[in-house]
């Protein structure tokens, strides 16, 4: 396939090209930045922010403009060295987004959460009237791809999300969950998924803690858990065998000193899995505190070790990606099913 004549360009970073700390600082900068990263020459833009990636999609600019816009947007958070970022354009940019939505680029191959995150990114861009015609078509192709992969292949069988991966990890580390107590910090999307998976796996006792007491109570009722006020989170550590931290704070919610103090008199070790980017848990120094913190980098390594189990489904999913990519490219070349040329569609979009 050849690149398109007026390309969509993608530039970004993910868990494969930058360490978690760097990715966390970049995501924090993006979350805090009110300005939308869209140069004046661009026909459209979409920002995709997930648990472990931050990407910018621009329409109607070249690679150099896209790279410059991305770096300027992130400003001081951009590291001076050690980041190898390459822009993708045309077919390669389209293929990448379709693979992301299919779960082929995720830490957990086949995860289903990334598709809803892509939908949220697109809705936010639409709210800002940001996408151009090609990006509208590309994201809808991505949604179609993700849906097809999940319905037509076995890629989504078994562990399909980071939350599911965490539950599998806890089962490996703690053996029988029916005799264990697990504290879930955070009642958002990831925390809710983790709590539901833990209940489905028969966890003995489940504690839910969230900054919003009504939200903690609602999730606790749903999964038959015990809600804890946010100020009691360290008290919950004295009773838990494991903690799943799924908060979205910009700074640690379990600081090293207070974490060490909370478990000082425990007779058993405490396992803490931190799903946040940037990290929301600080590891106490040394081994004397009997706390083990597993962050995103270690979690990703462990999950990738199991990825080859579904290689056959990956091949089928990649075929779906190529089919949907070709459909998008056909429209882009001016052979869309509605009979409109690319120039006509762009003209209508510009006058809307």
Notes on the protein architecture:
With 352 residues, the chain is an alpha/beta fold. The protein has two domains: 8-157 and 312-351, Beta Polymerase, domain 2, CATH 3.30.460.30; 162-302, Rossmann fold (3-Layer(aba) Sandwich), CATH 3.40.50. 47% of the residues lie in helices and 14% in strands. It is built from 13 helices and ten strands. It has helices spanning 20-32, 63-74, 91-102, 113-127, 133-152, 162-174, 189-200, 213-223, 233-237, 256-262, 296-304, 311-335, 342-351, and strands at 8-14, 44-50, 53-59, 88-89, 181-185, 205-209, 226-228, 242-245, 270-274, 291-294. The protein has a six-stranded parallel sheet with strand order 7-6-5-8-9-10. Helix 3 (91-102) runs parallel beside helix 5 (133-152) and helix 4 packs antiparallel against helix 5 (133-152). The chain is globular and about 65 Å long. Residues 335-352 have low confidence and may be disordered.
